[in-house]
Design goal:
Radius of gyration: 23 Å
Oligomer: single chain
Strand content: under 5%
Largest sheet: 2 strands, antiparallel
CATH superfamily: MFS general substrate transporter like domains
Structural class: mainly alpha
Low-confidence stretches: 1-8, 43-83, 252-268, 276-290
Number of strands: 4
Number of helices: 23
Shape: globular
Order of helices and strands: EEEHHHHHHHHHHHHHHHHHEHHHHHH
Distance between the termini: 32 Å
Length: 556
Amino acid sequence: MSPHSQNIDPAWPPGTVRLDDLNAGSEIILEPKPSKDPNDPPKLATMEEAFELRSRLILCCDGYGIVSNKLRFSGYQYKTNKNRVNVATVTWGPLNIELGFSYALLNDSYAAGCGALAIGGIFLIPFALKFGRRPIYVLSTAIQCGISIWSARMQNVADLMLVNILSCIVGALSEVMVQMTVADIYFVHERGLMNTIYYWFMTVGTSLAPLAGGFITLSQGWRWVWWWMAILFGAGLLAFIFLYEETMFAYEPIDGVPITDRAASALPSDKDAEALAHGGVDIAKREEVPYEPVEVDYSIPKKTYLQRLSLWSDSPVSFGQVAKHCYRPFLIMFSIPAVLFMAIEYGIMTACTTVPVTTLSSVMTLPPYNFGSSQIGLMGIPPFIGTCLATIICGPLSDSIALYLAKRNGGIYEPEMRLWLCLAFVPLVPAGLFMFGIGLNNGSHWLLPAFGLGVSAFGVVPASGAALTYLTDAYTDIIADSVVALTFVRNVISTLFVFALQPWVDRVGLKWFYITFGLITMVVMFGNVFFIYFGKTFRVKLAHKYRHFGVQISAL
């Protein structure tokens, strides 16, 4: 990689950057632009620092699991808060016997958790923007440890509902925080792989947590599922306290230019945007701009270990300004179509993971399968395999395709280049859902629905990773609010499907539910074609709105 600076042409829409310097032997240009400060997280001055940052992302992805109540059993990543309920599904039988909770009540507790995930980030992410990422990771992990102890001592319906709701409110931070951290420490040409790895961590918990939970329930009792969670959260808390460094970085003015002006100058003016919308600017044919290497200024003191581990990094802005982020995600979502569409697609992909989990617990415990807790847990292995294979293939391939297409485009990268990959996997998701639902409906051998789960999981990974990376690349300056909106929509969709699942199945049958679900999924995934061809047009015409939101956030 070449540590060249990136001078974004003011006529380019947000998200369009030069990644390939054709005049310098096709070297990769780092975007965002490196600074001279050795404390700037994404600027790699040495191989040792590069290794540190990779380790921090791995910890960050671990943090996703820890903060969002995702458990790592047998070396695997922690399950998400919503997947806290997934692992709980294998304990529903003992809960029903010991505490008298009906299956309808347990299903409602699952849906309540999904609903809490939808709103938690709206109220809590402003604290990450005010005080930094580190204190939120640390404090939320401590809270989750306490909630896990509460779960292990559960006695009544109030306990059941409150532990699910409170855990998921705090865990709603996780997805947004990870995307903020990815944007903090990774360059554009690296984000496809890192978002795919992140999604792998997220879905592995969904797949394998019930497996571990089932065996723990059988061998130690259902309460020990939550005691193990408390133990692992405690270990995660220590890891965050002593190993995780702050990634939020306040850029100092350069050459006397305020940061807000620099942010605005990187966006096209209304006149430039209008010219782009009418084909007045051919980016690939524009005159090459000179690139100069950015040398790290080691005269700037590098923070010590203890300074990097300070509990918070207070922003000078007031809470009143930061509190605007409680409603700004909705303004962004309804102002920028790509944010709304990617949120819907991501929500549908998540539902493809969570809806089958609830179906397994309610259908495969009955004849002809008569599965027990451990057997239900074993059904998480096929989606785990599908997710792993997709991650291995699609993670590196996403970045490679983006770089290849950028080179063909005169070295200019467009975020829509990320979306081509997921189109190749569109048929797999509905096909997997058809095999799963129809197989269960017909009482087929368990291998058919298991294979369907694996096929569906294989197709979900590239679509979900592309949605996250597209938003990160196209709307970097507003990624926190964009992912809050995405998380809200995603969990609303999951909640609706969970609440509607049983009445829907009762009305049309399991077979037609999954056929309809699969067709809905296919239609949504094909929506990427629209953004491949018109996404740039939206970025051009809505650049002034992006500038408005971006400058406001930069001012914070």
